[in-house]
Amino acid sequence: MKKLFQSEWISRLIDALLPVFAAMAALMLGAVMLFVLQVNPVEAYKALWDGAFGSTNAFAETLVKATPLLLVGLGICISFRGDVINIGGEGQMIIGAILATWVGLNFTGLPGWLVITLSMIAGFLGGAIWGGIPGVLKAYFSVNEILSTVMMNAIAV
Question: What is the distance between the alpha carbons of residues 157 and 154, in angstroms, rounded to a whole number?
Fold first, then answer.
């Protein structure tokens, strides 16, 4: 019985470290490619690190660019858990950004905290409605969700 628990523990440890191993493999492959291009990989990765985290402004810009992508990735993970293929995250992000921007530009008389909150809600709702259209098409008309989400991306762009 004890051996079973050890095996399960090792399996969980490997599962937890798998993203770390994948990132290390990607960095090593990138280093090989940089070396082939006659570029010092250490200097290139240092410049990459400094560009993303080298100053307060660089870190803020990294957060500004990464947050929407992380939210889209989270939404796509939820759809994958439901056995639905959603490759329309780009279009949903664009429509959400358009609605959030519209709210921010048109409700200038309100307090800042309220405009930010309303902008976020509008962005979430816009992306959800945009993603819901292929869902309705699949549920009621048996339209392939891969095709409809790709087409919705093109419409949003």
Answer: 5
Q: In terms of residues, how long is the chain?
A: 157
Residue 4 has φ and ψ, to the nearest 5°, of -60, -45
Are both 71 and 135 inside the same structural domain? yes
Could you tell me if 49 and 9 lie in one domain? yes
The pLDDT-based confidence of 72 (bands split at 50, 70, 90) is confident
Claim to verify: residue 44 and residue 96 sit in the same structural domain: no
pLDDT at 10: 86
CB 119 within 8 A of CB 100: yes
pLDDT at 6 over 80: no
φ, ψ (nearest 5 deg) of residue 59: -65, -40
CA distance 48 to 69: 19
For the whole model, what pTM was predicted? Answer: 0.69
Largest Cα span, the chain: 67
Show the domain range for 106: 63-157
120 in the same domain as 43 = no
Please check whether residue 128 is in contact with residue 100, taking contact to mean a CB–CB distance below 8 angstroms: no
- Angle 21-22-24 from CA coordinates, rounded to 5°: 65
